[in-house]
Each structure stands twice: as C-alpha cells, then as structure tokens.
Write a structure and sequence with these properties.
By secondary structure, the protein is α/β, with parallel strands linked by helices. It has helices at residues 21-39, 59-62, 100-103, 114-131, 148-154, 187-192, 199-202, 210-217, 226-231, 235-238, 242-250, 286-296, 320-330, 345-357, 370-379, 395-401, 412-417, 436-450, 453-465, 471-486, and strands at 5-9, 46-52, 66-75, 78-89, 92-98, 138-142, 167-172, 180-181, 203-204, 207-209, 220-223, 254-256, 307-311, 336-340, 362-365, 382-385, 405-409, 429-431. It has two domains: 5-260 and 471-486, Glycogen Phosphorylase B (Rossmann fold); 280-465, Rossmann fold, CATH 3.40.50.2000. Strand 17, helix 17 and strand 18 form a beta-alpha-beta unit. The mean pLDDT is 96. Bound molecules: alpha-D-glucopyranose.
Length: 487
C-alpha cells in the first residue's frame, strides 16, 4: 500500500526549543507516527515538521541546520523574507523558517504582535510546502499559533489545485489560550490578509478567535485526552468555546487521544541530570538522589522524611488556590515540599513567603530549569498535581517513570492516566473535587502509607512499571489520519 505524507506544523518542538508540554509532544509524536506507519508495512511514508527558527534554538542544533533556499512570503501588504533551513533526524525532516524580525526575540510568546508573528509563520509554512513542491496528504497543526493554517487553506488558497486534497487536523493542547483579538484592531485584512467576506470564520462572541476559526476550518479536531474531550463540551472547562466544541462534536469531528512521553528522553537509567541513575531493579538508589537534593537545597538531610515535588507553571488552573488554602495544615506534617516553576506573581510571592516561614520544610525555586526538574522527579517520593483543569499533563507520567508517586485531581489527562491505589490497577492517589480538604486528606493518606516501607516499595515498583510511552497513542493518531483520508 502507498504510504502517507504528513506535515506537522507547530510553534515549539523538543529538543530545539520548548516552553512546555506542547514542545514535548511535537518533539516525540512525528517520529512515533512515522514508526507506526512504517510498522504497517506501507511504502514511502514521509513525516515532515515545520517550525519557526527562533534565535533561542539550542546552539548545538543551530550549527547542524542546513540552508536550503529562501522565498518571499506575502502577508496582507507585507512582503517578508523567509529562509528555509533543514535538519533530518530518525527519518523525520524538520524545516525551520527563518525571519529575524519575527523570531529573534528573547521569549517565544508574549509580544504585542504575536498575532502577526504566527500569521506570518502559518502562511509561510503553506508557502514553503508549495515552494518546495511538497504536497502532503495530511497537515496536522497544534494550538492557536498554527490555527490559521487550516483557515488559510479554506480562504486564500481555496481553489489551488495542488492543495485540493489536503486534509487538516487541529489539535488543542489547552483551550484556555485561543488567540483572541478585538475587531477594532482591523487585524483580519490588514494583518492576516484574509478577505473581510471570510471574517465570519474568525468571529466568536463579539471578537476574533483563531482557535474557533481553526476548529471551523479543520477536517478534524483533536485534543490530548479523552476526558478533556468531554470536559471541554461544558462551560466549566471551555473558556467560552463550549458551544463551538459541541458543534464540532455534532459533526463527528472531535477526538481525544492521550499523549505519551518519550521514554528515552525521560529515563532514570540514562538521565545525566540525576545524582545517581537507577531503574526499577535498583529503586533504593532514589534515596541517593533525595539526600543529595536535600543537601543541594539546604534542607534537613534525612531520607525518612517524605518529599513532595511540584514542577509546574505557577498559574491558577494548576490548582494552586487549593495548595494555598491547605498549606499551613500541610506544614504540620512530617514532610518536605520542593516547588519548581514560574508564573503569576501572586503564586511566586506566596511560595517565597511560605519559604521564609517554613524554611526547613519548603524550597521554592522560581525558575524554568530542566536539569533541576529531573532531579526533583528522581528525588521526591510524591508528586503533587491538583489541577483544576489539565488537558493531558505529562508531569504525572514523567514522575511515575522516575518512581515519584503521583497525587492528582481526577480531571482531563490526569483522570485518564492515574487511578487510585484503592482500585484495581491503582497507580497513584486521586481526589475528585476542587476542595482543599479533599486534597489534604489524600496527601495525608499518602504520607501515612510512606511510613510502611513494604507498601511504599510496592507503590514505587507499580508506578515505574506503567508504560506511558507513545506506542498506543501513535497508532490512534494514525487511525485518525486514515479515517480522515477515507472521508
Ligand atoms: C499543554 C497542556 C498539558 C498537556 C500539554 C501537551 O501544556 O496544559 O496538559 O500535557 O499541552 O499536550
């Protein structure tokens, strides 16, 4: 059977550049989809990934990129340079689109002209495919930053015979970030270069909304866990888009596929960030990691004190209000808490204040630090993720792989990946409601279990044995591609 040509377009990708889970997923999914397709013995499968060339790209990769060519991309009245660089890894071809005006910045997002930057990128990605004469069967885009790709295909490129049979998928990694603009900004024609007769595609609840337009124009919409796919049909989770999601459901085009993690990238037996490497057969070495981390962070050094880790963006949907309310009570326990993350000033301030008050029990490191995050996964006994909403969540999977037992609220991907120890097949601690007392009770239950060495050893072995790799999910993505191509 003839294979498939798949183009994945996204705004971040490990190991080149990432600000969060999106980068992890785009980093591993393409290779795993290619493998799943090749495993089916189809001929000539091809997966390409198109990314912006941020100046922040890791140096070791910058030096490996090969210049291919350049072209000019038109965005409304603008004519912009677009350099094309190439890199091949494990059979996947990565194209990096260069334009320093848009991508030579100190951060990936958060600029007044993000709309223009990612409109440029989305348009440039399509133009690059045409310029290189690549006609994919499937174009798979991720989050609002690349949401204009299916919209352009339905508008500016409508009728282009080369793209006529291309099918599109839009994946929502977090419905909270939609790419919204006011009509007053005159952005549709002047920036996106989309004719005003098509403005209705972007219109939602009195403003412009790229995520809504992407859902409307894509052939399929997916999100990163089955439970989240249900949750976002309700106002509680949809950040205003529930009506639109229900429309997508009624058309039969919504799917929920749980993410996996790259088991090589996250592996305690290979991870150079750890003080001491280990695997399921040498879990006692986790204690070395714990003791060394305690030393490094200037916490009391004692392997018998249970350590709770949190590696998270410090924003409200991560459940930090519950943590705030429960904190004083939690500090009465025999426990150490290590928090790593950046985010809203109020939460950064809260953890810093608490650290001043409970210096021997809490370390709050306000930073994004991959190396330290891995040390925390390997040293902590418990990993707390009390999210109010969580599309998928990768940290509970990474923590499990490193033997840190997850405590999660049952929402989104957390509900789909972690099941309470009291149930058959249990692999963690869970609670149901957004209620700090419920959270506290389950933490206390876990701290209590920790005291029983035999139970605890079994818990670690159990969580480390769960397979959170990509094999099953990559197959589901492939099935989705096949379903869409048959339509
Ligand atoms: C976003 C979501 C997170 C998910 C990740 C990858 O960061 O908030 O839950 O795991 O995307 O899909």
């Amino acid at each position: 059977m003839e294979g498939k040509k798949i183009a994945i377009i996204a705004s971040e990708c490990q190991p080149f550049f990432a600000s969060g889970g999106l980068g992890d997923v785009v980093g591993s999914l393409p290779k795993r989809i290619l493998k799943a397709a090749n495993d089916k013995k189809e001929e000539k499968n091809e997966v390409i990934v198109i990314l912006p060339l941020y100046s922040k790209i890791a140096k070791e990769y910058r030096n490996k990129l090969v210049y291919v060519t350049q072209h000019v991309v038109t965005l409304a009245w603008r004519k912009q340079y677009c350099g094309i660089f190439k890199y091949i890894d494990k059979g996947v071809t990565y194209y990096f689109l260069d334009n320093e005006y848009y991508f030579k910045r100190s951060a990936y997002y958060g600029y007044f002209d993000d709309g223009e930057r990612f409109a440029f990128f989305s348009k440039a990605a399509i133009d690059t495919l045409l310029f290189l004469d690549i006609v994919p069967d499937i174009i798979h885009v991720h989050d609002w930053q690349t949401g204009l790709v299916p919209v352009y295909l339905r508008t500016n490129y409508f009728g282009d015979i080369r793209l006529m049979n291309v099918k599109t998928i839009f994946t929502i990694h977090n419905i909270e970030y939609q790419g919204k603009y006011s009509f007053d900004d005159d952005i549709i024609e002047d920036v996106f270069g989309i004719d005003s007769v098509n403005a209705y595609l972007l219109e939602y609840n009195g403003c412009l909304n790229i995520m809504k337009a992407a859902m409307e124009c894509a052939n399929f919409v997916s999100t990163v866990s089955p439970t989240y796919a249900n949750e976002i049909q309700t106002p509680q989770y949809a950040h205003g888009l529930d009506y639109e999601i229900r429309r997508v459901v009624s058309e039969g085009k919504l799917r929920g596929i749980l993410n996996g993690i790259d088991k090589n990238f996250y592996s305690p037996s290979k991870d150079n960030a750890l003080f001491e490497k280990y695997d399921r057969k040498s879990i006692e070495k986790r204690n070395v990691n714990k003791v060394k981390l305690q030393e490094m962070l200037n916490l009391p050094v004692d392997e018998n004190i249970p350590m709770i880790g949190m590696v998270t963006r410090l924003v409200s949907h991560k459940g930090l209000e519950m943590v705030k309310k429960a904190f004083e009570e939690l500090m009465k326990e025999k426990v150490q808490v290590v928090v790593l993350g950046t985010g809203d000033a109020q939460y950064e301030g809260f953890f810093k204040d608490m650290e001043n008050q409970y210096g021997s029990k809490l370390r709050a490191i306000i930073a994004f630090n991959q190396d330290l995050s891995r040390k925390i996964y390997s040293a902590s006994d418990l990993f707390l993720m009390p999210s109010v909403s969580e599309p998928c969540g990768l940290s509970q999977m990474i923590a499990s792989r490193y033997g840190s037992v997850p405590i999660v609220r049952r929402t989104g991907g957390l509900a789909d990946s972690i099941c309470d120890f009291t149930l058959p097949g249990g692999n963690g601690y869970t609670f149901d409601n957004i209620d700090h007392n419920e959270m506290l009770n389950v933490i206390k239950r876990a701290l209590n279990d920790f005291e029983n060495k035999e139970t605890w050893r079994k818990h670690i072995e159990k969580v480390m044995s769960v397979d959170f790799g990509w094999t099953a999910s990559a197959k589901k993505y492939l099935q989705m591609y096949e379903e869409i191509l048959e339509k």
